[in-house]
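Notes from hallway chat w/ T.B., transcribed later so I don't forget. T.B. wanted the structure written out for a chain they're using in a teaching module, and asked if we could keep both sequence and structure tokens in one place. Agreed to drop them here.
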Amino acid sequence: MKPESTGRKKGYWGKICNVDLSSGSIEMEELEDEIYRKYLSGVGLGAKILWDRMEPGADPMGPDNILGFTTGVLTDTGAAFSGRFTVVAKSPATGGWGDANCGGYFSPFLKKCGIDALFFSGVSEKPVYLFIDEQGAELKDASGLWGKDAVETEDELQAAYGKAARVACIGTSGEKCSFIAGISTDRGRIAARSGLGGVMGSKKLKAVVARGKLRSEVSDKARVKELTRGFRDRLKSRDSLKGILSDWTTSLSGWIAGKGFYLR
């Protein structure tokens, strides 16, 4: 169960962690480079794993649904805007594909554990949370956290594991398997779409605590810095999207709302 460096310098580890909540088993799995070439990481890796491993007709709130937490191929490499994580599963709200993404610190801390993604199958008999670091992963009893809201849960786990740990968790709506429940991190950032907090609750999974210290590497760090610096310079331009939104965001939001559109 111990994730070790693969020697790669491609922005990914080539490893995922599979957790069977029904049996309590935890397994580290190596993936071929070809998967990353085809699907990258994030939502692409999540879609690949769920497509290959879930049976048609799986109940979104049942043991056959797979809940995944995926990082990006550029997460923790120094690249700009690459710190989001994506949660994937079959959505209880639609009965089809479900994904939700969120920023903050959870994604880089998860990737620092030496894996690119976590996938949960099965249903636990009692409330649990997963603790993971670069040494491995362990399921722990969450009975004392069940019934608490997301901020209380995060605060308690943060106090237990220190500032070097980051938490993604559900509150009481997720525990009650609400179809509109999200997954919270950083005391209020939420992966909100598709009812995936309800899926997490159906599995009796209260939280994931990530406390990794490894660092993802790329073969050409200087080039990553150069591209990132150039992108940031363009964003500072008044002709960029940032400049447009700084001047027109309120008007644009009103127009968008009036047209019935929404931004993903």
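Follow-up for T.B.: The chain is about 30% helix and 25% strand. Might be a good example for the class.
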